[in-house]
Each structure stands twice: as C-alpha cells, then as structure tokens.
What does this fold into?
Amino acid sequence: MADLKTARHELVMANRILFNEGIVDAFGHVSVRHPDHPDRYIMARARAPELVEDADLIEFQLDGTPLDAAGRVPYLERFIHGAMYEQRPDVMSVCHNHTVSILPFSISKSVRLRPVIHTASVLGGEVPVWDIADEFGSDTNLLVINMEQGRSLARVVGQGRLALMRGHGSVVVAADIPGVVAACMAMDKNARVQFQALQLGEFIPLSAGELRRRPVAASGQPPLPDRAWEALTRRAGFH
Amino acid sequence: MADLKTARHELVMANRILFNEGIVDAFGHVSVRHPDHPDRYIMARARAPELVEDADLIEFQLDGTPLDAAGRVPYLERFIHGAMYEQRPDVMSVCHNHTVSILPFSISKSVRLRPVIHTASVLGGEVPVWDIADEFGSDTNLLVINMEQGRSLARVVGQGRLALMRGHGSVVVAADIPGVVAACMAMDKNARVQFQALQLGEFIPLSAGELRRRPVAASGQPPLPDRAWEALTRRAGFH
Amino acid sequence: MADLKTARHELVMANRILFNEGIVDAFGHVSVRHPDHPDRYIMARARAPELVEDADLIEFQLDGTPLDAAGRVPYLERFIHGAMYEQRPDVMSVCHNHTVSILPFSISKSVRLRPVIHTASVLGGEVPVWDIADEFGSDTNLLVINMEQGRSLARVVGQGRLALMRGHGSVVVAADIPGVVAACMAMDKNARVQFQALQLGEFIPLSAGELRRRPVAASGQPPLPDRAWEALTRRAGFH
Amino acid sequence: MADLKTARHELVMANRILFNEGIVDAFGHVSVRHPDHPDRYIMARARAPELVEDADLIEFQLDGTPLDAAGRVPYLERFIHGAMYEQRPDVMSVCHNHTVSILPFSISKSVRLRPVIHTASVLGGEVPVWDIADEFGSDTNLLVINMEQGRSLARVVGQGRLALMRGHGSVVVAADIPGVVAACMAMDKNARVQFQALQLGEFIPLSAGELRRRPVAASGQPPLPDRAWEALTRRAGFH
It folds into this structure.
C-alpha cells in the first residue's frame, strides 16, 4: 500500500469500478485502511459508490467514529469495515456489497457457495454465512449498525476472504484495493457458474490443492490485479 | 410531498428512472397524487415512460376523467391509479409495470413472491396475485379499463405495498415518488433472488419481525431513498 | 401500409430496432411487401441488420428473384419471406430471427412455447415448430435455401403469427412493420417468462378467450404499436 | 490469410471484438500464426484484450519464446497457443477464454456441451473437456504454464474445433481470425441455449449429418464470417 494520496485515489476508483462491474448498486461500500495509521480507515460518506469523489472521503477510527466528518453523514454500516480491520491486521481493504448472484446462496438452507473456477481460489474454500438472527434475534432490519454486530460478522469471516450475510449481501477483504475488487469479481463470477453447474447435476469443485494456489506464475508479479486493474480503471473512465 | 412543481419534476424523473432501471419498458406508467388536491392525480399522456416530459403530464379526477387533456390521449389503464388513490389516503404515488422478473410469479399456481432480501421488507410479506378472470371472466384482454376493475385490483392490494396481476404485471404504491421507485426496484431484485434460491432448494425468507423493519437507522432519515435517489436521477441524466 | 418511401424508411428503422432490442444479432432479417406491387417484397442485401441503410434495399419477386440487385448479394434465406407473402395475402411484413430465448423451445421434445403474458396474445396460441428434417432429411445445414423449403415452413405457420424453426430460430409475420417488431418482442418476452414459470412448476397460460383479445381498448387505435414504436425508433436513433 | 499487416490489424480488432461480445473479460487472449513464418505466432503482451493495440503485439516461436519482447511481458499461458499451432498445421488462429456460459459445462460430471443450434455446427460434435489434474495432479493453479501442459491440452482438442478446460475456460481454434471469433460466439450462444433446453427436458441436438454441414450456401462464399465480421468490427469501433 503506497502513500495516502494513492490510497485515496485507488479508493475513489474502486467505488466507480465496483458499480461499473455490477458488484454494488446504489448501496454497498468499500474502504481502505489508512496507510500511515493502522488504527484508522478511510471510506466515503453515505453516497452511492458510482458518485464517490475524493471530497466525499472521511477518516474513521476503527470503532466507526468519524475524525473529519465536517457535516458529512457516514454509512450506517461502517461497523462492518472497522470490525474487520480490528480483527485482521493483514486486511487493508474491505468491501460490503449486495451482489445479486450471491444472495441466493446467502439464504439457501442446503447449498454453500464454494470455489469452482480458477480465479475463485482466492475465496479460500466453502464460504461461510453469517445470519444476524443467530446472535441478535429475528427482529432486526438485517443491517450491521454497531461494533458488536460488526465483530460478530468478523468472527464468521475469521481468517478467510469473505462471508455471506443472510438475506443481505457479503463482506469481502483483501491486502489491497485492487485485491478486494478482484475478489468481489471472482465471487460474483463463481456464484454465477456454480449456480448453473448445480442445475446440470454433480460438478467438480476446486480441490484442496487448487484452493491453496493462486492463478499466478510460480515466480513473478501476480498477473491477476495488474492486467485487470488497468482494464477496470479504464472502463470506469480513469486514465 | 412538496409543491406541485416538485411533484411534477419528480414524476418526470421517475418515468425516466423506471425505464432506465428496467422496471418498465415502452409500457407501464407512474403517477403522483396532486399535492394540493387529494382528489386528483397527475400522470403522463399515453407515452413510453422513457420519453415523458412535463408537457405530457395530465391532471385526472380519481375516476380517471382528465381535467386538462387538451387533445392528449391518456393511458387506457389509468384506472389502476385512480382506484388506489381512492382506496388508500396514505398513498401518494402509484406505479403499474410489466417487470419481467415478477411475471413468472404472477402466473405460478404454487409459488408466491415473498421478501427474502433486506431491501424487500417494504413489500410487507407474501405478495397477493390479482387474477382479472376471477371477477371479470376468462374473455378479457387482461387490461384494467374501468374503475370497477381498478377497484377490484385495489381490494387485493388492500393495505399492502403491491399486488401482482396475473399474466400482466404489478401495481406498486408508496407514500412518495422516490418510495415507489425504491419499492419497484426492491420487488424486481427480490424476485430475481427468490427465483434462484428456489432452484437451490429450501431457503430462509425474512422473518415476521424482519418484515416489520426497514433498512434504516433506528433514528434519523431513511437512507434508502436518498442515497439511491441521488444516484438514480444522475443515471437517468438529471443533475 | 403507406407509400413506398414510408415503407422503405420503416424497414430501415425496423432493422436497427430489431438489433437494438436483441431480437436479431448479425444474422436474421426483416422484409416488407411492396405497398404498390403485392407480388414483390423489399429487403436488405446480405448485411447485418444493425448496419442496414436505404441503399441496401433490394426489391424481389416472391420467388426470391432480385429485380434490382445491381451487384448486391441478397440474403440466402430470402425464401422464408417470399413463401410467407405467397401463402398469406394478409401479411405485409416478415421477420426471420435467431432470438436466444426461443431456441430452447425450438429443440425441446416436450415443451411448446405458448402465450402466458398479455402482450403475447398476438402469438395466437401454442407455437408450432418446423423441423427441416421432417421433409428434407437429416443432412441439411438447417437453412431455408429455396422456395420448396420456404413453402414447407409457411405451411407450418399456416394462418398463424409465427413458427419456430428447430435448432435455428423463428419466422414471425404481421400486417405491418411495427406489428412484426411488436410480435417479435412479445415472443421474446413471453419465452423468458414461460421458461422461468416452468421452473416454478404449474402455471396459468392465457385462456382461449384471452388469446382472441388484443391489449387494446374496445374501440380506438391499438395502443401497442404506437406508444412502443415511438420509443423504439427513438432508442434506435431515429427522430 | 493475407499479409502480415492485415493479420496484425485483424488480431487487434479480434481482441476488442471478443471483449465487446462478452467472450473474454480482462483475461483471455487470441493469437494468429505468422502468415509468412508458420513456425511463429503473434499475440499481444499481457494486457486485457479490450486495450490491445498494434504496439502490444509480440512474435513468438511455437515453444513460447518471444522474439521481440523488448521488455514487454507475455501472457503466462501462451503455451496454449503454441501447442495448438505445433499440433495443427491447419490452424491459423487460437483463442483462450473464460466465457461464463461454458464454465458450468467444464465442471459438470454428467453433461457435455454439444451443438444444438445451426451456427454451432462448427463446434463439430460433443465438446471434450481437458482436466489438468488428470496428467498434472490436483495441486496446480489450473493455468497452462509450459509446453508440456499445452501439448496435453492440444491432444484433447485433437483434430477438433475446441476443448473446454475444467474450472478454467476453453481453447478454440480456426483457419483464420474471423473464424475463431465466429466459433467463440457460436460456442457461447450454443451453451446458453443448451443450458436452457436441459431445464425443459429432452431436446433435439444437431444430427451427425447436420454437424458436417456449415450454414453457408451450397456454393459461394461462407456468409458466416463476412456479414458478422463487418458488424462486429463496426460495433468495436473500427470502420
């Protein structure tokens, strides 16, 4: 993760890309841990990702307290992000989304989302589902509105890449912003493929060994974010 | 609901947004109750929503009689709107659409559309289906062409948010224009998710308690329309 | 059907609209019977519909002989059109397409496409399937390459609105160009809805009485083509 | 296959077309055999196809050694291409893609992709699946990273048009660039149709005789690439 200016710029681009690629709609959000202050994260004020600009970015303490709100209203569910940064020192970027393709898996009683395509090895394995009702009862509006709920969700993510949120969406984490965008896109594509494969009958998922690998060369830069990131930023209108 | 000028402007924007978001195609319509005259509503002349402009708007009595047609031809099915305003003093905006995702649920003999995602709590519960043939026989063209048919449909909506119309589409109501747009989009997204969840087997719908909640903060403005409305109006080309 | 200039202009627009609306891709074609010479029809030279201009239009005898080819190569499958005009004096426009949504119905051994939504009453009833192998053996490339094959297909259309062509596409006919475009779009939407309804279980199709009706007022102009045609032509870039 | 300048231009266009038509995303690649040197092929450096320009093109030996890399990084999986050119003197163009529609078929234990629509006769018959684990174990990242793996895949393609790669994508070959683009698009459309047809029950696939035919006239130019190629190049922004 480079300097603050780069982090803020990547975050603005990620907002637009995630909308452009159908991962988020008017709702959903993405954040980055402050490159100089690991006890802070940066995220837009409550605005649709497709409209986010640098002037919308707010710095938060991990408990969700805004440090420079200046009248701007934060996302209600920012606690999803703070709790992940709190639990996972390795995580530098978090995305909360309501991607359509994973929602059926979030409410299914019998089928779990699991990696079946090579780019989805980053998902790590069978994807856990966090049901807010398990700890907080069946009378909520499903939103994560405080740190207690955020930490409950973070425990289900554990040391993994993501968790689904029953009837709501998902939270995805990564070591950098391009990585969280790539993971969200892999999650979405995998869900579409797995859903169709289930209609065809039995299928071959990624093996334990394949799950440990990443689709990169044995040595050298991981091609996944670079080649895609250049294309995604261009598609979203950035040079 | 603000003044007449705002209501008319929001109505024009809603027409474009509903088309842009795939809720309506060349057919379908949206109206608003007159902010100053609860015994009137405002809707475009018979024109595809994507083309509606302020000059297309006509004021109607609740029984569908145009007050200022000036040669402009009204929608044949305006009675859907008038009957809802007549039966529901709380309703300030109505949308009739033929959204593809809900049509299979409108003709299914065994499956009812029901809220499974958090934004669809606004749908209230299992969605009723109005079959025109029940009261008007099996020899109609399925269109609601008079107040008698409109009132029959309104009775099935009852105190709820919407009803499906067998083999035809849906009618959706709300307390304001952004609310009716949000409800239509939630209906559409929920239908897509529920359809796929059904392919996976048993699933967890929203609980009774979750249905009563709205995905907003315990206190403060409902984030649903605002954040989305800003994005939706921009996508449709309005500043 | 108006004068020749109007017919040619509508035909050019229909080509662009059918592509814009996903009915045809680089293949597929639409024609119009010559308004002054019922023993001729007009269709583009072999060019993707999205690119067709007035200069591409060729006049044909019903047997497919071009009258003014001037070096332009006609569509190989023009015999689909000529045979329909020959058999059906009431038909003034024909479209041959490979629309994805109807192809599964064209090869299904057990399920027939049938009207389930109100705009699809124009399809008339259960849609017949023409299998070229029935008369011409299992060694063809499925294309209709002469009048004998065109007439075989036309017999299956009979007095109806359309027929599917096994593993290939469909032929759709109407009394004018806006009508053939509307029928193609209704066919496509109906197929999408019926396909999903089948996944849900038993469903309610349009009744015999509903099939006879059109979604228009009891008296007055059919709203279906007008409102849609204005929108469709605009979407395709025409004023 | 014409001269080098034409081949390079067609290759650049193919990159953009394949992205535009949804065959490839930021990953996937297409190459052409050098028209003057059958022991070389030309392909872009590791860049998303939608961005490829002539300056990105590199010439390779069939074993994947770049001849004029000049600091540009090649695709890791170029061995897919070299192995095909090596095994198949008739092949002049190769595409590797991760097209979503075929991925479920690549992991299905019971269902094989097979031609059901007329444009897919070019696929030749039931499409074989290459599973990297068969020869290289269950501990790979599924990528083809050397000639040994490339040749293993090429053996499964054999004398055919394509093979699926389990959990990964496909490799498609043709006698020229427009042909490989057309084959990829036919593969994609066929997969969508076959998938839906399977949901409906039993279906009629192309017969053995129909598989041998191509949807062209008995004599004359194959219409498939020409009419489509003109449209596809225009859609991708080329005159």
